[in-house]
Amino acid sequence: xxxxxxxxxxxxxxxxxxxxxxxxxxxxxxxxxxxxxxxxxxxxxxxxxxxxxxxxxxxxxxxxxxxxxxxxxxxxxxxxxxxxxxxxxxxxxxxxxxxxxxxxxxxxxxxxxxxxxxxxxxxxxxxxxxxxxxxxxxxxxxxxxxxxxxxxxxxxxxxxxxxxxxxxxxxxxxxxxxxxxxxxxxxxxxxxxxxxxxxxxxxxxxxxxxxxxxxxxxxxxxxxxxxxxxxxxxxxxxxxxxxxxxxxxxxxxxxxxxxxxxxxxxxxxxxxxxxxxxxxxxxxxxxxxxxxxxxxxxxxxxxxxxxxxxxxxxxxxxxxxxxxxxxxxxxxxxxxxxxxxxxxxxxxxxxxxxxxxxxxxxxxxxxxxxxxxxxxxxxxxxxxxxxxxxxxxxxxxxxxxxxxxxxxxxxxxxxxxxxxxxxxxxxxxxxxxxxxxxxxxxxxxxxxxxxxxxxxxxxxxxxxxxxxxxxxxxxxxxxxxxxxxxxxxxxxxxxxxxxxxxxxxxxxxxxxxxxxxxxxxxxxxxxxxxxxxxxxxxxxxxxxxxxxxxxxxxxxxxxxxxxxxxxxxxxxxxxxxxxxxxxxxxxxxxxxxxxxxxxxxxxxxxxxxxxxxxxxxxxxxxxxxxxxxxxxxxxxxxxxxxxxxxxxxxxxxxxxxxxxxxxxxxxxxxxxxxxxxxxxxxxxxxxxxxxxxx
Length: 694
Hints:
The chain is mainly beta and 694 residues long. Helix content is 6%, strand content 62%.
């Protein structure tokens, strides 16, 4: 019901013994008292809920903007969505976005080998997940082994408001890279004045951070935040460490309102990493050697957006630029004689690389009437990869240099319609056209629908197509890398074709009293999947060998190729229960089948069964004490041809001292689960922290 707004009156809601008094703008000339007698009767309960929705603003967990590029309630959105709120991140004491996602349904962000982390959504490879910050793409590594591997740890957690996760193909709205899903990290806004300072320390890292928001001061609102992190050195095996060292983040946002409906938003970001790793190896020819590799990385981000709205339109025009510069150097040292005496330490490899993204886009949402909303837009993206890779094949040979400088331009336009058919059915079709200067045109489409069985239960259905264009590295790589006495050459394949997918999912979800639940079967078929080709080995005379022969093969060549088809299907189950004002339970489970259809072999780095269970308690006081016990588990996790079954149990306690201060402490992997060197995971890790708000 639409209520005309004339003036403010005080309204009292009485429901049984409960009374709520609020100021509300109503079309009335005297105070009204709405009395609902007893809890019986669905109409009475629904009326109370509707009125309370007017009185209490919706929380960030109740709506999403990533699924449709418009604001919709989670219950309405057909796509499988999940929101990790700022409060949940605080309760977890999350170090990073990776940390904040570890209990999300069908999301795998594990760290292996002391490097970065994979980002898998519903079993799709890491390069099939699109990671955004406020809807913007960030400059990142573009190799299949490293795309998205580090980006989640390059986001300033002091600046994160919430994280929206979209599971399932998102190419019809976002284009390439969104075949598996979208993770949109939404940052804090300067809507109200406040300042936050905090610190955290633990087995992994130590950080200090701040966040300042001016609120709206006249026409201007300013937000500034920063974070300094020191990552501790840890070892997965003797001589082999993680990436450790220092990270620095800085972000700024200035919003200027021309009037209540139009404004200009300017953003800037800076990240600096100075990290290193240590590695030890032994070869039959050269004996024991160590390698220290330094990683000096810098990212700069700039954005400019004009936004506005009127009675029918909600529009924005935006351009942004992101640049990641990498300078990586490896120093090799031989330990065993006679090579230690002859060679000692020397500069083994040097990699200078710049990834650049320039994007220009416009979007408008046109509200035709209360049952029809159309969103349309266009984008231009310019990507550049400049790389110089130097490798000293053997200490007595001259430098080998690989140079790879290439660009890609893409153009896109999309159209989406939100159609409300009666009171129960919402249908959202979407269509997108992409033009890639290497592969011509690609059209992707999606149809989603939500049918409300009643106020508390609904059915959702989605069917769509997706695609991913090969990266510049996959197309044009020219990398040479020394590995012991062997030289590895990775050469791009300019004849690669884009990957294409067909995605369908169905879900039943609802709420019943204190419980909420969701069951979601899904299916995804991928054609022309890009994979590393079989490696070819050559001897010193250039003769092709049947296989790698230790001590003899001196060159290994590999490239990339399209394979025919992969198939991924499974079922997600989610369940939550609020026992009372103190106890809360959250669980999720995913069954996953992921196979190469040509060989019928399981795809690696995926579990047949996985899930999480999280039990939370609070004393429900004005300054609450909360405690969370969580278990993340995997059954038949396939890695390097072997299956692993394991779980990690974590515990964390948060205490709000007063309205200005909170503290927390926790332990991850309480039982110190160890899978050995083949599948290395963090052992028992502790963390503590504190935060002050002014």
